[in-house]
């Protein structure tokens, strides 16, 4: 039987068996996003259970995945459940130590902005605003410098609804959730009428002239950890041992992260350990591009290094350093910021556009003292109501600048528009250069 007869027979059978199809689908009503609610804290699986199940299903996870789960889990994540900053939390920040810190930053932004000309209308954009203490101190300065509510707006990048509410209660006389169609998810007004907006991503913040503040923001960004072996760079992963405890293990082969993140000049020198945050590099690039294209200045303040350190990943609980693989979700995970890598991500080069002029890093001690922090310190002490208050003010300042405390470990870096190169050569950036002595 030839092929023609076979096809002819099949066609007859198929024709005879042809049926009319009806509706073979079921209409399903999608849930209304406006009515969806997150489960109450404590009713969802614990962070440890989530991590263990993920490892059982998919194998070892990267340190970046581990941090991401702990930071962003909507109900059990570290920043989602409680206030974590201050004496009663797991760590304390410079703005919580002294009002002088935020005031100096406000003066710094204003001073550097004068080199650009007009700065109105102005957006103040803070990434990870914490308890909003820094922003309150900056706004106090801005008010003294003549900015009216119509001249500025505040834009806060915050993923934690808990911290968002803390910030709103401190900053605003009224605040509310908004429609899911809007780029921001929360809004409010200060007592003077300044509009405040909250976002879960920097990309959603309007592209306008802005002061960008990132204080102790990059140190919590998820990192990949790498070690150099005889066979080249390999990634450290987190796995479960026989007792159901988390531990580190090293990959036998190069991972995708090894191939995509470890590139010259990041892997230069004789380093045998690396920590790279892809998220940090992306945000640094965003800030640099925004500053260069739309105007403004970005200031980064964090504890970190200039590429000389390798293993800095750790956890804090009640102000004490603890094992980062124990009690996930209950401790603050952090890693020193590699300012060398941020510079690479943000710096303008001859072959690229929309990148910034990068200044720093400089030590916190040097930055504050070059910005005349001691002058402000004297004013605060002269206006103190008692000797006890004066002593507190003095000790707080010493905490900020002493090399053995925060003075050396914390560093500052700034991004300026690339068009300012001539201006900055003529008028060096405040805080990042030694002021000329007056005759």
TrEMBL record:
Organism name: Spodoptera litura (Asian cotton leafworm)
Keyword set, alphabetical order: Methyltransferase, Mitochondrion, Transferase
Name of the gene this protein is made from: LOC111354543
One example of a Gene Ontology biological process annotation: mitochondrial respiratory chain complex I assembly
Listed GO MF terms: protein-arginine omega-N symmetric methyltransferase activity
Cellular localisation: Mitochondrion
UniProt-listed Gene3D superfamilies: 3.40.50.12710
Function of the protein: Arginine methyltransferase involved in the assembly or stability of mitochondrial NADH:ubiquinone oxidoreductase complex (complex I).
Protein name, as recorded: Protein arginine methyltransferase NDUFAF7
Pfam families: Methyltransf_28 (PF02636)
Annotated EC: 2.1.1.320
A cellular-component GO term for this protein: mitochondrion
Similarity-based family: Belongs to the NDUFAF7 family.
Reactions performed catalytically: L-arginyl-[protein] + 2 S-adenosyl-L-methionine = N(omega),N(omega)'-dimethyl-L-arginyl-[protein] + 2 S-adenosyl-L-homocysteine + 2 H(+)
């Amino acid at each position: 039987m030839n092929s023609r007869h076979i096809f002819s027979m099949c066609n007859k059978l198929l024709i005879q068996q042809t049926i009319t199809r009806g509706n073979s689908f079921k209409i399903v009503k999608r849930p209304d996003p406006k009515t969806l609610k997150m489960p109450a804290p404590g009713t969802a699986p614990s962070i440890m259970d989530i991590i263990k199940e993920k490892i059982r299903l998919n194998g070892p996870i990267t340190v970046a995945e581990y941090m991401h789960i702990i930071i962003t889990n909507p109900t059990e994540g570290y920043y989602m459940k409680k206030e974590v900053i201050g004496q009663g939390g797991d760590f304390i920040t410079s703005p919580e130590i002294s009002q002088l810190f935020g005031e100096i930053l406000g003066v710094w932004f204003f001073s550097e902005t004068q080199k650009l000309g007009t700065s109105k209308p102005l957006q103040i954009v803070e990434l990870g605003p914490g308890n909003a203490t820094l922003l309150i101190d900056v706004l106090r300065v801005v008010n003294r410098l003549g900015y009216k509510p119509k001249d500025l707006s505040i834009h806060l990048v915050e993923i934690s609804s808990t911290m968002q509410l803390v910030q709103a209660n401190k900053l605003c006389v009224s605040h509310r959730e908004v429609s899911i169609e809007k780029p921001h998810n929360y809004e409010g007004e200060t007592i003077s009428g300044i509009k405040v907006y909250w976002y879960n991503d920097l990309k959603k913040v309007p592209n306008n002239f802005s002061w960008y503040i990132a204080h102790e923001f990059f140190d919590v960004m998820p990192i990949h950890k790498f070690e150099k072996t005889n066979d080249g760079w390999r990634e450290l992963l987190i796995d479960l041992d026989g007792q159901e405890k988390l531990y580190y293990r090293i990959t036998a082969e190069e991972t995708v992260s090894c191939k995509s993140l470890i590139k010259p000049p990041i892997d230069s020198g004789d380093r045998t350990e690396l920590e790279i945050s892809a998220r940090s590099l992306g945000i640094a690039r965003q800030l640099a591009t925004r500053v260069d294209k739309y105007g403004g200045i970005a200031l980064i303040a964090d504890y970190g290094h200039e590429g000389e350190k390798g293993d800095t990943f750790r956890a804090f609980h009640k102000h004490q350093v603890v094992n980062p693989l124990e009690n996930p979700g209950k401790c603050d995970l952090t890693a020193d910021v590699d300012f060398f890598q941020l510079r690479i991500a943000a710096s303008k080069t001859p072959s690229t556009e929309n990148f910034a002029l990068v200044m720093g890093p400089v030590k916190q001690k040097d930055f504050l003292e070059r910005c005349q922090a001691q002058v402000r310190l004297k004013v605060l002490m002269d206006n103190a109501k008692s000797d006890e208050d004066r002593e507190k003010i003095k000790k707080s300042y010493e905490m900020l600048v002493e090399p053995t405390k925060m003075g050396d470990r914390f560093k500052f870096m700034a991004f300026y528009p690339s068009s300012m190169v001539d201006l900055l050569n003529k008028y060096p950036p405040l805080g990042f250069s030694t002021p000329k002595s007056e005759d």
